[in-house]
Amino acid sequence: MLIKLKNKSAAAVLAIQNYVKEKGCDTRVFEGDTFDAIVVCGTDREHKVNAADITSLAESDIDKIMTTGYLLSSRAFKQEDTTFKVGDVTFGSDELVMMAGPCAIETYEQLDAVAKELSKCGVKVLRGGAFKPRTSPYSFQGLGIEGLKIARKVCDKYNMLFISELTDLRFLDAYQEYVDIIQTGARNSQNFELLKALGAIDTPVLFKKGFADSIDNFLCAADYIYSGGNKRVILCERGVMGLNQNHYRHNLDINSLLALKHLSHLPVCIDPSHACGRRDFIEPMCLAATALGVSSVLIEVHDNPPLSLCDAKQAFSLSDFKHLQKSLSVFTTATKSVDKD
Ligand code: PEP
Ligand code: MN
C-alpha cells in the first residue's frame, strides 16, 4: 500500500506513521518534488492497516491510496532526471556510460585480456556473467562464485567497476561482496522476491526489461526496487519478442526508450547485444540509442569472439569496440554542435 499525499505535510506523514506503527507495521517515506509518499510495509499489513482509518487521519492531505500501479519511478514523483554516482561513474547524465565485457567470465586470462584493452579505451565498467541463464541446460553455465572472484581481482587491477547478473537470491551475499552493480536478467524482470531483496540493499541495480513486459509492468517492477529504499536503479531495454528471429534475436524497442524517458526519471540504458543477437547491428543501434538520449549502454565484448563460450554471434571484438567508440565520438560532437546552433 502506498499513500500519496497532495503536498508535503510533515504533520500528515507523522500521523500516518504513528497509526501504522501502532498497528504493528512500518513505513518508508519518500519525498517527491511536490508531495510526500508513504509506503506501508510489514507482514499482513492489508489486515492490520485500514485504508479508511488512514484517510480519516489526514483526509485533506491525502491524494490517493494506491494498491496498484507505480509512482516512485515516475516523473509525477520526480520531474528531473535522476543521476547518481557509482564510484566515480555517473549514471543518468549527458555523458554516455559504456559498460562492456564478455557475456560470460570464462577464465582469469580471458577476462584480464578484455579488461586490459577496455580500460585503455576509457571503459570504467566491466561486464561479465558468472551464472549464465541459458536456453539449453547443456550449454556453458558460467563459473559461479569463482567467476565473481576472478572479476573482482581483474576489476581491482584495472580500477574498474564490475557489473554482473544475479540470477538467484542464494547468491546475494556474494554479489554484495564482489559486485559493484547488480544486473537482473530479462527472465527475472518479474521475479518479485528477487526485486524486493534488491530494494533492501544499497548496491545499484541495472534492471532489465523482460522480452514480453509492457512498459507499465516494467515500471511497476522498478517500483518494487525503489520502494524498498534502493533508489539507484537503471532501466535497461534489451529487446522484445519479435517475428523475425531467423534474422535477428529480438527487437530493440526504440519506442520504449523514448517512452521510458518520458514516463520515468530513472537513467535509461540499452543492451543492443542481447536485443539484436548479432554483431553488425550493435554499432548502428548504439548510435540510434544515443540520438534517443540513453545514458548508458551494455555491450558484449570478447578478446576472441569465435571462441566465446556464450553468445559468440553477438560478441564484439576489441577492434569492433574501438570503432564504435570513434563513431560515437563523431556522432556526439556533431549533435552537440546542432544543440549550440
Ligand atoms: C546478459 O546480459 O548476460 C543476459 C543474459 O541478458 P538478458 O537477461 O537480457 O538476456
Ligand atoms: Mn550474453
Q: Would you give an account of this structure?
A:
- The structure is a single chain.
- It is built from twelve helices and 14 strands.
- It has 341 residues and is α/β, with parallel strands linked by helices.
- It folds into two domains: 2-66, 2-Layer Sandwich (Alpha-Beta Plaits), CATH 3.30.70; 84-340, Aldolase class I (TIM Barrel, Alpha-Beta Barrel), CATH 3.20.20.
- Strand 9 (161-165), helix 6 and strand 10 form a beta-alpha-beta unit.
- Helix 4 runs parallel beside helix 5, helix 7 packs across helix 8 (215-226) and helix 11 packs parallel to helix 12.
- It is globular.
- The N and C termini lie far apart (48 Å).
- The chain binds phosphoenolpyruvate and manganese (II) ion.
- Manganese (II) ion binds at residues 103, 274, 300, 310-311.
- Manganese (II) ion binds next to loops.
**N-end to C-end Cα span:** 48 Å
Q: Strand-and-helix sequence, N→C? A: EHEEHHEEEEHEHEHEHEHEHEHHEH
Give the CATH class of the largest domain.
Alpha Beta
Q: What's the Cα radius of gyration?
A: 21 Å
Structural class: alpha/beta
Number of helices: 12
Counted beta strands:
14
- Named CATH topology of the largest domain: TIM Barrel
Fraction in beta strands: 15-25%
Overall, the morphology is globular
Query: Fraction of residues in helices?
Result: 25-40%
CATH superfamily of the largest domain: Aldolase class I
Strand order of the largest sheet: 7-8-9-10-11-12-13-14
Domain module tally:
2
